[in-house]
Design a protein that fits this description.
This protein has one domain. Helix content is about 40%, strand content about 10%. It has ten helices and seven strands. Strands 2-1-3-5-4 form a five-stranded mixed sheet. A two-stranded parallel ribbon has the order 6-7. It is globular, with a radius of gyration of 20 Å. The relative contact order is 0.13.
Amino acid sequence: MRPIFPFSLIFITLLLGALPAFGEIRNINKFLDQCPTNDPAIARIRGDFEIRRDGAPTALPSCSEPVSQMPSNAYTDELMLLQALRVVYYMDQGMSGHLPWTPGDLYDWMKSKVGGINIISSGGGPSCCTTINGRPFVNIGAHDDATREFQKKWIYLSVIVAVYAHETRHVDGFPHSSCCGATNGCDDTFDQANLSPYGLQWWLNKLWLDGTIDVGIGCEPPADFSDSASFFLAQVNTTFPSRFCATRPPVASMPSIPGGACHDASRRRAVSHR
């Protein structure tokens, strides 16, 4: 016998089905003040993406909340990378059709391509890839205390997220060129249908700017909100276009609500960006 649903339940279901898709981060500042080690999803994240240092497995790092108040030397590379992976896990969870290079979300695409991240203690820029146990690992140089202090903030941690996606894209067979004057630091053409590594970085920053991937920068205090909006607009219109030669990404305008409106009920009434 077919179940009978109350009209109110049917209405709510239809309403929810009509709402735009969001990820699971409503307030990025609150989110980043939480320890990734306390997140119920951390076992899955560490199982999907192994973090190694100079090829050796690393232990679960210690953490204390609020993360923003941790001493810089306690906010280790391992902890920072777990925080970045935690953002990737939640930021577009359940979304589809927003990334031209994959039908699903960023986390599942990255998981299918790489086994994790290998921290190089001697430093150096990010690169792809070192093979460990038959799987490619993205290399990221160790950071000093001052740099990791910056990376507690979303705009700087977003660079780590986008760089990780960039290096992961190399697994698909995308080399760099030197056309822009930087040795192996450029991509010839921006092609939305076949995005290169720098194209992926541009695309992610554009979605953070226009709120397609909404992590709650609309809930940030006014000064942080202004910094975020200006940062992502500069990334989209200046930083990444300079990495292309033949065809560059389109110019973006500042959205009326950069990053999207605040969806955190506890912050909505307190936040004003006027």
